[in-house]
Design a protein that fits this description.
This protein has helices at residues 7-18, 23-30, 34-44, 82-93, 98-105, 109-119, 136-147, 161-172, 177-187, 198-206, 255-263, 305-316, 338-345, 361-373, 385-396, 408-422, and strands at 121-124, 130-133, 269-276, 282-288, 294-298, 326-329, 348-351. The protein has 423 residues and is α/β, with parallel strands linked by helices. The strands form two sheets. The protein has a five-stranded mixed β-sheet with strand order 5-4-3-6-7, with helices on both faces.
């Protein structure tokens, strides 16, 4: 039975080779054969040059690409760097538990567990103990090697010119990368080459340099939200209760209505709001929760409750009763005469809690999209009904990620067809 070198000795030899020391020097100093060294290098995941140098004084190790120091910082996106891995190695050699090492490094214990499992070297000796060794230098080398991405991105290859042009066209049409990615299977259901993730589109937009996808765009940016962090929920005290809110809060709904509203499977539950501008201008936005289909109505230079209710009645007049079950609104005074609307249309109106826009999230999301066409400060008295209808049709024809690439118009038609078949 031959002699087996301990894993610690093997790692020492491998680290020496990673330092650029020649094979000849390692063989002389450590007293091992060349075949053993090369076998250990392969076992440890170290790449060697294809054409090994004839000069024995040169290193045979394939140098890992320099990916930059991206291990610094904390929070989301935190990656281990060589300094972190050195702490892990020292902790393991001192018998410190992985959970304690995680506190030393400042990461989650699961991060340390994955690091040890992925980069630790295990040697199993027949009829002997299992030997384990972690090397910070080797782990960093393997990480840099695995992180390198020498192949071209999908949108840069000659085989995907049609996909690239389609992506550019959709981005120029105002779709976000996520909407582009989810719409492609709908437009090309039988063409597997017309598929790409939203992350790949983001990388093509923001990572590449000269000749990048961004140079072909006619729009300034692909993201419609300039916000980097989420707005905190309001900590203002609750408003004084208003008499016209009695019995029509969201908590006052019957179980069937509440279940349909929450499930989004049954159409007919809408969310509404006013988008306002200067000179008492404004438009009403209504969004159906199941299909995300939207209706827009311009106000005639006044926002009093009587005018809003009259305009709202006109907007829903042509809707089938099957898709007009309820409307959720905030506590704005413009809906003080909501009872008149319910009598005229048969559609009940319910109100959110004070300072709680997240109780009508579909409408809030839609209003954010609408602001791309009508930024804050827009005077809606200068907007014609025809222009507003064109924006409404455009937004209802935009594929939505939440609808798996289908548009609100397509989804509403599908829901109406289902209702007709059950009648």
């Amino acid at each position: 039975m031959g002699f087996s070198f301990p894993v610690g000795f093997r790692v020492k030899v491998i680290e020496t080779m990673l330092d650029g020391v020649s094979t000849e020097s390692v063989l002389t100093s450590e007293g091992v054969c060349q075949a053993s060294v090369y076998r250990w290098m392969k076992w440890a995941g170290v790449r060697m040059r294809r054409n090994r140098p004839k000069d024995e004084s040169l290193s045979v190790v394939f140098a890992a690409p320099q990916v930059g120091a991206i291990g610094a910082g904390a929070g989301h996106g935190r990656r281990l760097d060589l300094a972190d891995r050195t702490l892990i190695q020292l902790g393991m050699e001192s018998g410190v538990l992985p959970a304690q090492i995680a506190k030393m490094v400042g990461v989650n214990p699961s991060t340390i567990g994955r690091e040890l499992a992925h980069h630790g070297l295990v040697q199993r000796i027949q009829n002997g103990p299992v030997q384990y060794q972690y090397s910070a230098k080797l782990a960093q080398y393997r990480t840099d090697l695995e992180r390198a991405r020498p192949k071209k991105r999908k949108l840069d290859t000659a085989d995907h010119k049609v996909l690239r042009q389609t992506v550019v066209d959709k981005l120029n049409a105002g779709l976000s990368p996520a909407q582009v990615a989810v719409r492609l299977p709908v437009d090309f259901p039988d063409d597997g080459s017309m598929r790409i993730s939203h992350e790949a589109i983001y990388q093509a937009l923001y990572v590449q340099g000269a000749g990048s996808l961004r140079e072909e765009l006619k729009v300034e940016q692909a993201l419609r939200s300039g916000r980097r962090t989420r707005k905190p929920r309001s900590k203002l005290p609750a408003r004084v209760k208003r008499p016209w809110l009695a019995g029509v809060m969201l908590a006052d709904r019957d179980e069937k209505t509440a279940a349909e509203h929450a499930g989004r499977a049954v159409p007919g539950h809408w969310e509404g709001d006013l988008v306002v501008g200067p000179e008492n201008s404004g438009i009403i936005t209504l969004v159906e929760r199941a299909s995300r289909f939207a209706l827009l109505g311009r106000l005639p230079g006044t926002r009093d409750s009587a005018t809003v209710i009259d305009r709202l009645q006109d907007m829903v007049r042509t809707l089938p009763q099957a898709v007009l079950a309820s409307i959720t609104w905030d506590q704005g005074n413009e809906m003080a005469q909501h009872a008149r609307f319910t009598v005229a249309t048969g559609c009940k109106v319910y109100f959110c809690d004070p300072h709680s826009p997240w109780q009508r999230p579909t409408n809030e999301n839609f209003n954010g999209q609408l602001r791309w066409d009508y930024p804050k400060g827009t005077n809606f008295n200068d907007v014609t009904d025809a222009e507003l209808r064109a924006v409404q049709d455009k937004l209802n024809s935009r594929p939505r990620v939440i609808l798996k690439g289908y548009t609100p118009t397509e989804k509403l038609e599908e829901l109406l067809t289902g209702i007709a078949l059950t009648l």
